[in-house]
Write a structure and sequence with these properties.
The chain is an alpha+beta fold. It is about 65% helix and about 15% strand. The chain is elongated. The protein starts with a helix and ends in a 5-residue tail after the last strand.
Length: about 600
């Protein structure tokens, strides 16, 4: 077959030639072997039966030997070990006697011999039993003498048993010898001939494959090595078969990989983060161009230099331990540290590294987090200022306000003399201002507890109606002053809750409803139980809340802006505190409203199991 014809044939056609010739040969060879193997299988089964018969006969002789030796040893020293050996051998001999019967099957001659074997075994067991009884007699000398007499009969029967077992396995041994002599000569000859033919066929096919595929496959392999080494590929192979197409696809793939590599290098070169690799000695082996922008070092200035050299002394040991642990565990690591720039300044970096055992390098990406650190420090300073402010409010305002409130109360009661009506009005106004300031201080302190997670509730059994009634009585003077009627519709139930905190919530919601309601109107408070929770709803006929602000009203310092906002101006802390208290009870709080028609604030908390 000419080389041009090799190239014209398609790969499936070539494969058909390569497969069909060995297939025909294999079918013929397999058929021949099947016939020979069937004959060999029949011989093998006969041989296996013969082996089993010989093996079981040997075991029978062995166990009978053990029985004789065991009873002999028992007669000498009366040792229990010899007696156990004798009894165990007898049991095993009986089992093998049944196995021999199964192996003989319906062979007439074997049945006759096995019958004689059974008689001898029965006689042996009888003699052995008599020997055992004689040995165990109280008169030791007389028993041993009797046992020695029986021992002669025992040896005679034992020898006859061996002769009969030899006769029983005579045919089996002859069959085994003949099979061993013959072996599988026919099969061996067939295998030898088939192997020689197969070798010749393999040489012929290998020559054909070498001419058809070898040269061009070697070319493909060489192209693969060239691609790995980054060298130029060999020219495309000729032909229009699948190998030529594969070579064409390989050239296309190589071009795509080169383009992808170029884009990857461009991406790394233009990345804002510093991408680098560190060897097992802690030295930079590769650094991206971003190092110049972020750290002030050109890549060439860092390659071969230890990474520890650009870290502050305070961070060096900690980072070294992290890196060494990552290398030892072949894992990944993430840590933050400062990096000293080439100038006097330094930047904060977030490092992410992964060890490559193949490359023996730690590949790292260092992200500049200087601005984030500054923001965190600023938040920390603000938080400290807030805590200082709360502490100042708690210690420097609440105590003086309490003293002023007490003094104004004494003045109002006339302890320091009577005042005219104008003076009493001034005192009343001052008291209201002090009360507002005290409320603001208390709200600020509650807010601080809420944000720090220290807002606690003391759970105890409390009646739902009692909470509602106490809350109404607390706001009734304010409602009367604003000429607002309070309607109630409340069920009674027992809750496990902090009554003071819940009263604080209800009072706050009632005060807001009164504050934003017009005079000579009413508000309604209702309480009901549903499934496993209690729900309290407070509805007013005020200005309402836009739907876009239903969630934000529960945020700190958030208030609804409106034309009448001056009348309802507050601190913006009441509703957030209410939300924190309700959620501390495992409940929910919300609002439903329609602008111009009023609002309904509600909250739900879990019920205590009813008695």
């Amino acid at each position: 077959m000419s080389e041009n014809m090799h190239f014209k044939l398609k790969l499936p056609q070539k494969l058909m030639i390569l497969v069909s010739v060995p297939l025909v040969f294999g079918l013929v060879f397999t058929g021949t072997l099947a016939i020979l193997l069937k004959q060999a299988d029949i011989q093998l089964r006969q041989e296996q039966r013969a082996k089993a018969l010989i093996s079981q006969s040997k075991l029978m002789a062995m166990f009978m030997d053990d029985a004789v030796l065991g009873i002999g040893g028992y007669s000498v020293g009366h040792e229990p070990a010899f007696l156990n050996r004798y009894e165990k051998a007898c049991k095993e001999a009986l089992k093998i006697q049944a196995d021999l019967r199964a192996l003989i099957g319906d062979d007439p001659e074997g049945i006759k011999i096995l019958s004689r074997v059974d008689e001898i075994i029965a006689k042996l067991f009888k003699i052995l039993t008599l020997c055992k009884l004689a040995i165990e007699r109280p008169q030791v000398d007389e028993g041993n003498r009797l046992a020695m007499q029986l021992y002669g009969h025992l040896q005679e029967s034992h020898n006859k048993l061996k002769e009969e077992l030899d006769a029983l396995t005579y045919d089996a041994r002859k069959l085994q010898e003949s099979t061993s002599d013959d072996g599988n000569s026919v099969i061996n000859i067939a295998l030898l001939v088939g192997t020689i033919l197969n070798i010749l066929l393999t040489i012929i096919l290998a020559t054909y494959v070498g001419k058809s595929f070898g040269k061009r496959l070697n070319l493909l392999a060489d192209n693969a090595f060239r691609l790995a080494a980054g060298e130029e590929l060999n020219p495309k192979t000729s032909g229009n078969d699948e190998i030529a197409k594969l070579d064409s696809v390989f050239h296309t793939m190589a071009s795509a990989l080169a383009e992808a590599s170029r884009k990857e290098r461009a991406t790394i070169a233009n990345a804002l983060d510093v991408i680098c690799s560190v060897d097992s000695d802690g030295r930079f082996s590769a650094v991206s161009a971003a190092a110049k922008t972020v750290w002030g070092y050109a890549p060439d200035e860092l390659i071969g230099r230890r990474y520890i050299d650009i870290l502050p002394i305070t961070d060096a040991d900690r980072v070294r331990q992290i890196v060494e642990s990552t290398i030892a565990e072949h894992g990944v690591c993430t840590f933050e540290t400062s990096v000293m720039k080439k100038e006097t300044d330094q930047v904060e970096m977030l490092w992410t590294g992964q060890w490559s055992e193949i490359e023996k390098s730690l590949f790292c990406v260092a992200h500049d987090i200087t601005e984030r650190k500054r923001a965190e420090n600023l938040r920390s300073e603000i938080e400290q200022m807030k805590q200082d402010f709360v502490a100042m409010v708690s210690h420097d305002l609440r105590t003086p306000l309490g003293a002023i409130q007490a003094t104004l109360s004494l003045v109002e009661e006339g302890v320091y003399g009577n005042l005219n009506d104008k003076g009493m009005a001034r005192i009343t106004s001052a008291q209201q201002s002090v009360q507002r300031l005290t409320g603001l201080v208390n709200n600020l302190l509650d807010l601080e507890k809420m944000e720090s997670g220290k807002l606690t509730v003391v759970m105890e059994p409390v009646g739902l109606k009692s909470i509602i009634n106490q809350s109404i009585e607390s706001v009734r003077p304010y409602a009367d002053q604003q000429k607002i009627a309070i309607e109630t519709q409340c069920e009674d139930a027992e809750l496990m809750a902090d009554s003071d905190r819940l009263i604080q919530v209800v009072i706050n919601l009632l005060s807001n409803a009164i504050k934003f309601s017009s005079k000579d109107t009413s508000i309604k408070i209702s309480a009901s139980t549903k499934n496993d929770h209690a729900e309290i709803r407070i509805a007013d006929h005020g200005r309402g809340i836009p739907a876009s602000m239903w969630d934000s009203v529960f945020e700190k310092f958030k208030q609804v802006e409106s034309a009448d906002g001056k009348r309802g101006r507050g601190t913006g802390l009441g509703l957030p505190i209410c939300k924190a208290i309700v959620e501390a009870h495992g409940g929910q709080i919300g609002v439903e409203s329609e602008e111009g028609k009023g609002s309904t604030f509600w909250f739900r908390i879990p019920l205590q199991t009813r008695v």
